[in-house]
């Protein structure tokens, strides 16, 4: 969650948006702390990227304590609608949500209170979307620290007591959601999970970031 430009990891999930007549890769990102909202870039080869709208924001955040739009994750559903979730604040116990049919005009933003049932939860960071086409379900997963829930990590002071685990909910329509459950507990502090389906064997791949500071890891696994 650094104050640098963060590109939303694995936003190859909105492949094949159309600019002109060409199919391209699309990438969502934020700048600064995410105050000005959603930014989009495109690429024809996945290597060279071009900011759209001259680098200006496509959507200004309106929900959350700090009204941020960090870590925007977008997934295009089977009906063609784009769904987006994001980190709405440093300290919210929920996340932001909006939808669009064209990535330009967006629905009214709403706040999804995914961790409000945990009164000591410190955050909901970097939510990601994944659609399971076998069950017709969207998965939303994110990182949360609940103080005292897990064994403390070494050098916790440098991490300001943050000790994340991955949680999730499922939904079919972004109106009704399952109860919040633990998604992944690797027995270390973890954030930034991303899932893709392996098109060769039908299996699933997940990449996460190990946040343990001592011994220093801070790596993707």
**How many β strands by DSSP?**
16
Percent of residues in helices comes to under 10%
Distance N to C terminus: 18 Å
Range of strand content: 35-45%
Mean pLDDT figure: 88
Shape: globular
How do the SSEs run, as a string of H and E? EEEEEEEEEEEEEEEE
Helix tally equals 0
Main sheet makeup: 5 strands, antiparallel
Q: What structural category do the secondary elements indicate?
A: mainly beta
Radius of gyration: 17 Å
Low-pLDDT parts are 1-21
Short description:
With 221 residues, the protein is mainly β.
Notable traits:
five-stranded antiparallel sheet, 221 residues, mainly beta, four-stranded antiparallel sheet, 39% strand, 0% helix, disordered N terminus
Structural account:
The structure is a single chain. The protein has strands at about 5, 15-20, 20-30, 40-45, 50, 70-75, 80-85, 95-100, 110, 125-130, 135-145, 165-170, 180-185, 190-195, 205-210, 220. By secondary structure, it is mostly beta strands. The strands form 4 sheets. Strands 1, 2, 3, 4 and 5 form a 5-stranded antiparallel beta sheet that branches. A 4-stranded antiparallel beta sheet has the order 6-7-8-9, with no helix packed on it. A hairpin with a 6-residue loop joins β14 (about 190-195) and β15.
